Amino acid sequence: MEKYFIEIPESELLRIQQNIWDHEYVDAKLKTANQKCSIKVALRGNQLREHKKKSYHIIFDKPYLIYGQHEIHLNAEYNDPSLMRNKLSFDFFESIGVLAPHSIHILLYINNVCHGIYLKLESFDQFYLRNRNLPEGSIYYATNYDANFSLYTPEKKLKLTLEDGYTKKYDFQKDSSLKRLLIVINTFPKEEFIDEIINILDVEKYLMWLAGVVCTQNFDGFIHNYALYHNSKTGLFEITPWDYDGTWGRDLHGRPLEHDYIPIEGYNTLTARLLACPKYRVLYGEFLHQILQTQFTVQVQKPLIEKIHHSIRPYIHKDPNLKNELETFDGEQEYILRFIRARNKYLVSKLDSLIKL
């Protein structure tokens, strides 16, 4: 497992760890086996900031790019007793043809003190696109729960602006297409919506993403925990997952989540409008059926789970938050496999009724 060493003045480290709701970046140094660079570092996440084991956002300063990336995220995975749910999810999404960030586990040292096992994630930004030879395009982050593709907040209050809940991460040619997407979703009558949505959204990729969220059962994934990419070549929006530690049978706090907690139709306004169209409902059912047969199975996922587990296990004792949790950690393999069996069976049982409605 690769080691990351961050050197930061103790006074600055103490400041960001005590003032957890500040968004200020501090200067630091990062050293790996192959690189030495100057960075800016800050805490990341929402409720994650309150945990003893913090997550960090790193921006490369000098040099500006490392392996084609300008930013990375170091996730503590504090509430996930397996430490693998995020990575397992992103790898799963990639396997079904959905854009997802690359991830790898590392050991993080800060001022020569081991802070434990972290998941390093690449940022979903313009460099992500360039590294994959994808067309440029604006990128929007779903910053909070108001990013539900609706005119109203989850509390049923009218939003102040259409773009409430979103932050533009990368602006390509002063793009305003997000507003157009939200107008189509929320104001067009059924037939006009069906005719127009294909001109602004890659519907097939969205439905494939929906199938991925429904399988992994990320409750927040429908109104949060995603980013939108407006492909300048196709003129269509694509969607990518983010923060998937609350999946595979547990919620974002690490608590057990029943396998049938999320219905086969999922949530959010856009999903509801698409699935109200018979042809898209059938197409979604076909995608889901294929995934349940070929990807979301114990046979396919078990060796992947075992590989991740075996790569992490030798380093559990180095994590001060996990060194006494080896039995729990080991038990998570079977826990996730039980979830896959039960969730697959549940979704298969709902496929016929999904298509017939």
TrEMBL record:
InterPro entries from the UniProt entry: Spore_coat_CotH_CotH2/3/7
Record GO terms (molecular function): kinase activity
UniProt keyword annotations, A-Z: Kinase, Transferase
Pfam assignment, any one: CotH
UniProt-recorded name of the protein: CotH kinase family protein
The organism of origin for this protein: Viridibacillus soli
